Amino acid sequence: MIVEIKNLKKVYAGRTVVDIADLHFNAGETIGLVGNNGAGKTTLFRMLLDLIRPDGGEILSKSLNVASTDQWKAYTASYLDEGFLIDYLTPEEYFIFIGSLHNMSIAHVTDYLKQYQEFFNGEILNSGKYVRDFSKGNQNKIGIAAALMQNPELLVLDEPFANLDPTTQIRLKALVKKLKVTHSVTTLISSHDLNHVTDVCDRIILMEKGKIIKDIHTTENTLQELEAYFSE
Ligand SMILES: Nc1ncnc2c1ncn2[C@@H]1O[C@H](COP(=O)(O)OP(=O)(O)OP(=O)(O)O)[C@@H](O)[C@H]1O
């Protein structure tokens, strides 16, 4: 088990938006988090990354509370939104900066980026543009590739398929599947795309109004089950 959530609560303006009694993520799992707008997915991710603090309960990463320890930062990478980027840098400058945090030389970063040539689809590098001038989908690509520079054990992605073109969505799925096989990465993905999450995730957690409604291992029936749930 890599993450353990106990009696977690987040309250905004008197309304409980996350309320999870007990939830575990096992090492090496690819977990999809689904739920309608406002279900609490992003709030849960933000608490897992200690970007906001819970009003009750705790999140343990490798048995240590993420709100009171730093160890989890060494093996956890994430891309939630463009707030993770640095607008006034070019993608190259941003990658070099992130690389420097992981003791990577410029040459090492340049070499590292070669594997993302296909994922970038020729749109990210050598464009002369700043991060702020890229489309949301291309900013997503920059953020995800930068997060992976850390060689994480735990990867957290908030709606990574949103704004990506179909080709890149397929490439991202292949990338996540490969990380699981080659590096046993535990990946958490929130998404509104039931097709993609059931395709790439081996476990799906369905949230509604802050609570876990379903927690299922993906089978060939899962997509149908989720579609039936959401069409009610
Ligand atoms: N900073 C905040 N202040 C007040 N309410 C907030 C804040 N952040 C989130 N909320 C509320 O908490 C609830 C859960 O929001 P959250 O963004 O976690 O949902 P989500 O499942 O990620 O939704 P979406 O699919 O729309 O991204 C929503 O009702 C939202 O309005």
UniProtKB/TrEMBL annotation:
GO terms for molecular function: ATP binding; ATP hydrolysis activity. SMART domains: AAA (SM00382). SUPFAM superfamilies: P-loop containing nucleoside triphosphate hydrolases. It comes from the Bacteria. Residues 3-231 form the ABC transporter domain. The lineage of its organism: Bacteria, Pseudomonadati, Bacteroidota, Sphingobacteriia, Sphingobacteriales. This is ABC-2 type transport system ATP-binding protein. InterPro entries: AAA+_ATPase (IPR003593), ABC_transporter-like_ATP-bd (IPR003439), ABC_transporter-like_CS (IPR017871), ABC_Transporter_VariousFunc (IPR051782), P-loop_NTPase (IPR027417).
